[in-house]
Amino acid sequence: xxxxxxxxxxxxxxxxxxxxxxxxxxxxxxxxxxxxxxxxxxxxxxxxxxxxxxxxxxxxxxxxxxxxxxxxxxxxxxxxxxxxxxxxxxxxxxxxxxxxxxxxxxxxxxxxxxxxxxxxxxxxxxxxxxxxxxxxxxxxxxxxxxxxxxxxxxxxxxxxxxxxxxxxxxxxxxxxxxxxxxxxxxxxxxxxxxxxxxxxxxxxxxxxxxxxxxxxxxxxxxxxxxxxxxxxxxxxxxxxxxxxxxxxxxxxxxxxxxxxxxxxxxxxxxxxxxxxxxxxxxxxxxxxxxxxxxxxxxxxxxxxxxxxxxxxxxxxxxxxxxxxxxxxxxxxxxxxxxxxxxxxxxxxxxxxxxxxxxxxxxxxxxxxxxxxxxxxxxxxxxxxxxxxxxxxxxxxxxxxxxxxxxxxxxxxxxxxxxxxxxxxxxxxxxxxxxxxxxxxxxxxxxxxxxxxxxxxxxxxxxxxxxxxxxxxxxxxxxxxxxxxxxxxxxxxxxxxxxxxxxxxxxxxxxxxx
Amino acid sequence: xxxxxxxxxxxxxxxxxxxxxxxxxxxxxxxxxxxxxxxxxxxxxxxxxxxxxxxxxxxxxxxxxxxxxxxxxxxxxxxxxxxxxxxxxxxxxxxxxxxxxxxxxxxxxxxxxxxxxxxxxxxxxxxxxxxxxxxxxxxxxxxxxxxxxxxxxxxxxxxxxxxxxxxxxxxxxxxxxxxxxxxxxxxxxxxxxxxxxxxxxxxxxxxxxxxxxxxxxxxxxxxxxxxxxxxxxxxxxxxxxxxxxxxxxxxxxxxxxxxxxxxxxxxxxxxxxxxxxxxxxxxxxxxxxxxxxxxxxxxxxxxxxxxxxxxxxxxxxxxxxxxxxxxxxxxxxxxxxxxxxxxxxxxxxxxxxxxxxxxxxxxxxxxxxxx
Lengths: 513, 371
Description:
The complex is a heterodimer of chains A (513) and B (371).
Chain A: H1 16-22, H2 32-52, E1 59-69, E2 75-83, H3 93-98, H4 118-130, E3 134-140, E4 144-153, E5 158-168, E6 174-184, H5 186-203, E7 208-212, E8 218-221, H6 244-253, H7 259-266, H8 272-282, H9 295-307, H10 324-335, E9 339-344, E10 348-350, E11 353-363, E12 374-379, E13 382-384, H11 392-399, E14 413-421, H12 438-490, H13 499-512
Parallel strand pairs in A: 1-7, 12-14
Antiparallel strand pairs in A: 1-2, 2-6, 3-4, 3-6, 4-5, 7-8, 9-11, 10-11, 11-14, 12-13
Chain B: H1 2-31, E1 37-41, E2 48-51, E3 56-59, E4 63-67, H2 74-92, E5 97-98, H3 99-108, H4 116-130, E6 139-140, E7 146-148, E8 151-154, E9 164-166, E10 174-175, H5 178-181, E11 184-188, E12 192-196, H6 199-207, H7 210-213, E13 216-220, H8 227-240, E14 244-247, H9 252-263, E15 280-283, H10 286-291, E16 297-298, H11 301-312, H12 320-332, E17 334-335, H13 348-370
Parallel strand pairs in B: 5-6, 12-13, 12-14, 14-15
Antiparallel strand pairs in B: 1-4, 2-3, 7-10, 7-13, 8-9, 8-11, 16-17
Helix pairs in contact in B: 1-2, 2-4, 11-12
């Protein structure tokens, strides 16, 4: 508490690590149960990304083991996550895990994390709660395996290497193992953690995920396919999506000496003619050296980039949606519904950021009957488990006229929404729900209408089959009785043959459907 | 007597034939590979008309079809076939059953009725289809009324065939059940039938020996007279040639109890011989309230509403006495009960009121009709 109440008179320089250390709740590390969930999630997502970027079906092994009691409600746990991903070159390892805001995720392509913050925040959190170093073991599949024992120098945002080992990689192992201690409340977090693994398995049907919890219980999610989605290609930022900070950084690193080449080289979908027309629109000389732009001119440039209507929309090659087949496989694998329909929307954009909405609706079978729809939300293949009612999808689902689709709220229905984007429009830094952007809402609504339309066809068909079965059931129940009764009443001995009548009903039924 | 016996056997044969006819028709249709259908007169209200010659409600020309081809008809059709089969068994084995019993017996045949109302409706269907009353199929309702008076009857029910009994043998009266309604009449000294709305007064009449003082057969209707009682009254009138007098409370409801014995009910429009058109409503009239200065209660709203309904009812158009009494009720806006005569002493109703009424009875009514 004392640290947060920094006196207004003293201005200290604060490192990025220090900043996050003091404001760790913005990364979701708010309480012992939430923190342990977030820590596991961030590290697992890094592992999935590491495998996916190489188009390797991920094998992720997670073990959380009890170390010691900490407080009345919290314990110290050791978290170990092992993957079969790309591995990290030894020279990058210390910074990758020991320096906040260092990462490979600054170029524009779809990835799970966005700030290069998640994994390191988890490590930082472990260090401040247990004062224990983190162990990183990694190999890119070459002849050596590198092992580091690290701590973060929080005030200077620098890794401290405590130990470094090199081993011979006899088996050509490739991947990364991260192991560190942290404080948390697993018992409380358990339902969310298990749900997280289940949903992660749903949206990553090509991944093997194993989790061993502190009680020694094993949760195993086996892949249903080895087909992987196309990895995203890196793209330049689109002019609509820039801010002053990004412009300044680009100007700093650029080698271009005039505005036309500057725009063409650093922005997505800007060619010579577009650059010329834009510069004319913005009143900037083509030959102007970008490095000579004043601060005011940079701000004006940013405003004009947003104002100019002629830029082509960004293309979606930087996105890696699951695709209908994989989404189907994932939902099938985890929910095993009676009926499933999936739909992928065409790419769309908001504020210069491309995004794609994928939607699935599952009915019956293993879908739990809760009296309400079960909603599974995903953003860039990350399950969103908190604040469902604040998410734009919740509004979209609530606004639907479900009766038109023959859907009753008490039906066993699950709705799966996946939004992927180079910049998912999260409402908060905690990344738990997507804000109500009109473009996103429109895409989600259209996707939902499409899958619901197909579901309603299915329900109609099912109702029809059901009615037909019932109809036949009634005829085959009563006709034999009538035959029986009338035979006795008429004083006959031989029962009349009613098979022909029963068949005729069936035939008629088939014609009807 | 042998003739009477033959008549009863003959009717039974007719009943059995009607059931067999239905069964054969269904059987033949099935055998020819068509969905069996059956037609019967419609019992909907627009098909019920009052026949002033018959002096009862009858069904019109409209008929309804039941087809096993129709998903909504096949279940009631099956139930109808089952009830026919069950009635056939009862009648040929000379057993009787009650409406409630039918409802339960169905379960033994794996024929389920949702409730007793459903099975009752199907029994009414069978009545409509064949033109016979459920009592002919040996199915009786639970409610019973009673008879008391000097009448010798001979039973026809199995085990009691030929055994005779005098209906004064039990001081509480004898239940009008299947054994009594199916009996043959041997001899009587009575020269009239008095049907009484309430059991209490029926008991009083027995205590006061009205049956011998006024040579009458006393019947307790127990409120609205059950069908078998109505048909029994008809037999007493037709076979013994006895005039029938009805005593009810002095209110629209009592008046209508008498009317149903006389003209029948719309619910039984598909049946004959349940009503006794010559029976007479002897009281208590609205005019009696004035003439005898009887203690009264005010008519309430439903009473008045009912009176306006009855005023338009075709059954109340034949004899002007009905319209006169309705008008009087509406004028004085009072009603009374049979027990009200007790203000003049326990025996007044028997010693004074009844003789006057019986004396004037049919002739007065006839006379008034002529005016």
